Amino acid sequence: MKKAKSISRSKYGYLFILPFFVTYFIFSLIPLLDTIRYSFYEYYRSGLRIVGPSFVGFDNYINVMGTDFFTYMGNTFTLWIIGFVPQIIIALLLASWFVDVRLKIRCEQFFKVVIYLPNLIMASAFAMLFFTLFSTSGPVNNILTGLGIVNGPIDFMGTPVGTRLLIALMNFLMWFGNTTIMLMAAIMGISPDIFEAASIDGCTPRQSFFHITLPLIRPILTYTLITSLIGGLQMFDVPQILTNGQGNPNRTSYTLIMWLNNLLRAPDYGRAGALSVYLFIVSGILCLVVYKMVNGQDNDAKAEKKAAKKRMKGLKGGN
Q1: Radius of gyration of the chain measured on its C-alpha atoms
Q2: pTM for the full model?
Q3: Which of 41-50, 76-85, 98-107 has the highest mean pLDDT?
Q4: CA end-to-end span of the chain, whole Å?
Q5: Which end of the chain is least crowded, N or C, by CB within 10 Å?
Q6: Any residues with CB less than 8 A from the CB of 43 and at least 6 apart, and which?
Q7: Would strands 41-46 and 49-55 be described as parallel, antiparallel, or unpaired?
Q8: Helix (H) or strand (E) holding 228
Q9: For 34-51, how does the pLDDT look when each residue is reduced to its tens digit (9 = 90+)?
Q10: Is the distance from CB of 270 to CB of 38 less than 8 angstroms?
Q11: Check: CATH 1.10.3720.10 for 51-297?
Q12: pLDDT value for 23
């Protein structure tokens, strides 16, 4: 009897994923390689005259790596930290409360929708809203003055602390709902039997949270930290609109991407390419550091298990 020929359908899988790779190659990989190439060239506009492109080696990298680079990087990380730390704390608390069966929270779906809604609003609209609310003649100042809390209008955007806190507040409101939903999904993936067993053994809710919940949702926490870090380095629209692209006062809210945007508008493609490469390298290093910090304990535990197995094999071999 003749054997039936096996039918391979793997080619259909390649056909389905082909559009993604074609799109990635055209719109991501080629521009990325082109950006790296231009970073080694002097290519800018001086008045109406275009200078370059002419090869200059690492001159653009040396030129960009100055005082401004570290100042704007410090601004970027400051804005990210004061926005992300409250975000992850509130998101963890809300996720724990909504998932906890003992609390029996009513209208849970309604609250989920409400906390996620700000994530659907464009950052530009958020920035314009806050610019109107917290201006010297805005509703917030009118309310505070009317209640007699302050004697005169407060210039929220006239001080570095006020401007940075407003930007951090906007980033918090826009993203804490998305983070909460993700952490809720992670906690709901934990087997309820684990919590029941811990409760029977006398584990308090606080101990359960720190010793069961947090270790088991570590992969999602890692993902949240990394995506938030990348988003923080790419912070642009909120400070750009709120400060009219100036990063005022005294450029304390001026981020790296705002600087990159101004270099591209000049245009100064060589320095913009070098700055883009620096951002790519910094993002990669920081993401690797975050991953190692969050998952270091798991790797140590795996190494200990492997060492224990080797010792057991050695003991059995000796016997």
Answers
A1: 26
A2: 0.79
A3: 76-85
A4: 55
A5: N
A6: 50, 51, 52, 53, 54, 268, 269, 270
A7: antiparallel
A8: helix 218-233
A9: 889 988 988 877 777 777
A10: yes
A11: yes
A12: 92
* DSSP symbol at 155: -
Q: Which amino acid is at 292?
A: K
Residue whose entry in the numeric block shows the structure tokens 């947090």 = 214
Please count the residues of the chain.
319
Cα distance between residue 279 and residue 113, in whole Å = 35
**Residue 112: closest CA among 94, 96, 126, 100:** 94
User: For residue 211, what are its two tokens?
Assistant: 């010793």
3-state secondary structure (DSSP) of residue 55: strand
Contact predicate 217/186, CB 8 Å:
yes
- The string of pLDDT tens digits covering residues 287-298 is 888 878 776 655
Residue type, 206: R
**Can you tell me the distance from the alpha carbon of 58 to that of 264, in angstroms, rounded to the nearest whole number?**
19
Cβ atoms of 80 and 232 closer than 8 Å: yes
- Say what the alpha-carbon torsion angle 131, 272, 265, 261 is, to the nearest 10 degrees: -10
In the chain, the amino acid numbered 119 is: N
